[in-house]
Amino acid sequence: MCHYKGGNKIFIASAANAVMLCVYGITVGIAAQREEEDRMFLRQFHYVVALEHECHFGRAAKRCNVSQPTLSSGIKQLEEELGIPIILRHQKFQGFTAEGIRVVEWSKRLLADRAAMVEEVAIMRDTMHGRLRIGAMPMSSPMLPMVSSLFFSRHPLVQLDVQFLGFDQMIQGLKNFELDVGITYLDDQQPLDGYETMPLYEKSLSLLLPDNDWLPNMTTATWKDAAQLPLCLLSPSMHERQIMDEAFSQAGYTPRPQLESNSILQLAFHVMSGNIATVVPQHLSRTNNVVFHGTREILLKDPVVSQQIGLVWAKGTPIQPMAKATVLLMEEAASSGLLKENFSH
């Protein structure tokens, strides 16, 4: 081409540049498209999980902040990508196919792993943020302020979300990556295979009475004594209530509470109003300097019920960052004597 005139050389060079720019543009476009596809793929996982939660296309779309057609189209694209049907298609949501159930399980795991990666990197940069989701039994209420105080001190950008749950709900939440840790009894009656546990403290049960003439001058009471008083107790579905019922049974009584609730504080407030008693963790009033005015607490015996309370989290390598951070803080609290100081008998 050297024999071409200068103007032709310029034209050829310009054409070559145009081709290079075109190729560059196509490459950038493909990369952007792939990036958008990756983002879309994550959204599709969110859509599937939201639909499993809501069992309704409209509510699932609202949960994801998208329109219903967008959600339906996204799930359809995921089905085409995987080459399987995920949902049973009718005019209304009818459930998931067998393959779809597995996709839901994997979607939860993938989204949880992505969140864990972000949290792990944040810990390395000492900028941990997000939500620590705790599933707790009602009887663990006295220790939760200590947990939150330790966490806020170490990780001020983290928010805590505490839910009081029965044991089965707690395990389901851990399994579905909807909870980071649980606080519950560690005993043979509760199956914890597949989960890591850490003992925190042991706690006995006490009778919380209104400050009246019931059981005067007594520092301990029997379950028989308690059964003969007007009672408010935890709901029958709660594991702690089942422990109480067993203790009453050993004493030869079946409790007939006038009121039931899944909140130990709600029960304590009713005792404050007078004319009803309840069963609470020992030293409930002493822990965290809580004062329930107009009440007194005496230890229950015959039998003495002592249960080990501990931390529970899902097994995995690596451990989920929020769970890891909680475990480390509780290990420090145990080694420093803070747990023993606040929760020993």
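The above is record 1. Record 2 follows with the same two-line structure.
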Amino acid sequence: MTYIANPARYDNMAYRRCGKSGIRLPEISLGLWHNFGGVDTYETYRDILRTAFDAGVTHFDLANNYGPPPGSAEENFGSILKKDFLPYRDELIISSKAGYHMWPGPYGEWGSRKYLIASCNASLKRMGLEYVDIFYSHRPDPDTPMEETMGALDHIVRSGKALFAGLSNYNPEQTAEAVAILKDLGTPCLIHQPKYSMFVREPEEGLLDVLGDNEIGCIPFSPLAQGLLTNKYLNGIPEGSRAALDHGFLQKDEINDVAINKIKKLNEIAVSRGQSLAQMAIAWLLKDQRITTVLIGASRVSQLKNSLGALDNKHFSAEELQQIESILAAK
């Protein structure tokens, strides 16, 4: 059955300007880091993508290595794009990245000009696209001159393979250096994608100031701290959760008594606000106007809809913010 997008998809989503650019992004964007790979169920993630766009989510974020296996998330997204979203391509902001290991040998990761340009070409082929809207350097490379990495991003934009350049996982000093080089090249940095949540506060230690001072957008990933900031771990580690998996990014030692106590207290505040803990965690990030959009993941449609519900209550009283800070500061 042919997919027809919801005609009211723009009625309820708010969009924030990305830095000083002409681009506005939905307050919630969808990331394909997990749940869209070759090991996942096609109809499930197809429904997630459709539901997201029907709700006004216009930004889908990928990377060359997303899967598993690496590359499969882009291939799967490309298949759904061709079947469902081609008529709406000009309504979408599609991003990809390169920086992590993708193929064997010395040119298969990090930030060389050869790797970034080859990765962009391969990503476009997997997705069946002529260009991506944003192409990121996924992580800084300690062994490649910053000028080479930023020069590659500049080339990718000037060649028409991407409309904008972005950075991810760069610290404040690296970001300032990269931003200055890109500015001199005439391809300004559009956006930065850092790991940021109630439990991961490093961006507050200088990065957000660099982004604000340079009028660059910010799209935090892992806003729920790999699921910690949900109802899932209120009573410990459930079977089948990410923390129960030996190969997951969330490790069992992160679910300790201190963390569980914080989660329970935060959940009490969320309930008093008429929200789930996940919804409050997303709304908490959006309280800062330097945040353009929050990048969420979803393994099922109900999870996506729950996250989108965060936008129903983005206001925090001074008392609520103080209570949250007290909880987070506890040892």
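The first strand starts at residue 15 and ends at 17.
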